[in-house]
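User: Hey, quick favor. My workstation is busy. Could you predict this chain's structure for me?
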Amino acid sequence: MAAKRKRNDTDGGPPPHHPPPTHPTSDFSALLKTLSQPTIKQILIQAARDHPDVAQSIRSYHEHVVAAERAKVIDFDRNSKEAWKAINVTYAKLSGSHQYDRAFDAYTTVRECIDEIAKQCTANASFGTNKSVLETLRKIGKSICLSNNTVASEVRKSFRSETKLPGTMLKIVKSMSAAEKRAMLEGDGWGDKLKELVKLAKSYVIFEDLEADIVDLVDDEDETGDSGGNDEEEEELDERSMDDDYAAIAADFGF
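Assistant: No problem, here it is.
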């Protein structure tokens, strides 16, 4: 007679409990790569809501990033030199027709210099970084205006409806405090240099938004100022000199 099979103690009872698999911390990097940025963001937001320690960690890291950004000064002078070289040197030995053919390449280089600067214009940038941005963009704008060859002529045409350079300058100026604006204008005669660029841009009919952006800066000042005058003033606005525009800028800056 065959021996009876030993009865399994689990027969008829609840299934055995198996804890969920755990992942070593090192595995999270691989796991996160499988998730989209919006998904990761949602997970972090929910984790911060559910766990105060996670929320505090996020705040601490943010404060660290902001402090580091405000302590850092980025010098963009090389961008102005690269832009100047693209317009005046890189294709200078070519004939006029060949310069014409390569003008778009020069424009692309200049635009990339401007884009690189714009990408690093953060809300927490230091005054030193913002100062470098404004001065570098002013130099690039002046190079575009005053360079004198076939490449330069074609590059100027490409910048007639360009908004990136004046738009970036406006973004920086609007982010500055009154004290920073004063420091900017008092530093190295930057106010007079800006005045020069506005005049050049108007004379070459480029950076069409440069003057408009500057006018935007003084809208609030104009609204609170003396509005006396007559109906003929509206017709005179278009004839207003660049000196008057600059005076309005200075007023907005608090000078």
